[in-house]
Amino acid sequence: MIQVKEGADVDIGANASAEEASEELEDGVSIVNNVVYSFRLQSTNFDKKGYTSYVKGYLKKLKETLKITDAEEVKKFEAEMKEEVMKIIKNFGDYEFYIGEGMDPEATIMLLNYREDGVTPYFTVFKRAVKTTKV
């Protein structure tokens, strides 16, 4: 999480709980997820049925690509993805969904969740959906 200075002061009318100690921030500063902010990810919504439909189609495309690039890994890929998708569906309500700024329907959806402390965020991204680039 990082602090970001906003361009304008906006009062949204929220009252801090009297029971909670609020963290004091400068006017116009908000705390945001650094990955979401830096990569300009856009929040998107799914219900369980919609996500299941999306992920089936997306994984089918990844599998077809894998058949061409690394056919020996297809069986392993199928087993791993089945297990991972079942975990995601089981805990569906815990995730927030993000897509790139261009909202490309062919792009992968990144899943944001939080560690057991409820504060530490982490993303789930399918490894085969990421292309490595030498910088």
UniProtKB/TrEMBL annotation:
GO terms, molecular function: calcium ion binding
Protein name (record): Translationally-controlled tumor protein homolog
Entry GO terms, CC: cytoplasm
Gene3D superfamilies: Metal Binding Protein, Guanine Nucleotide Exchange Factor, Chain A (2.170.150.10)
Classification via PROSITE patterns: TCTP_3
Domain TCTP: 1-135
Source taxonomy: Eukaryota, Fungi, Fungi incertae sedis, Mucoromycota, Mortierellomycotina
Family affiliation: Belongs to the TCTP family.
InterPro entries: Mss4-like_sf, Mss4/transl-control_tumour, TCTP, Translational_control_tumour_p
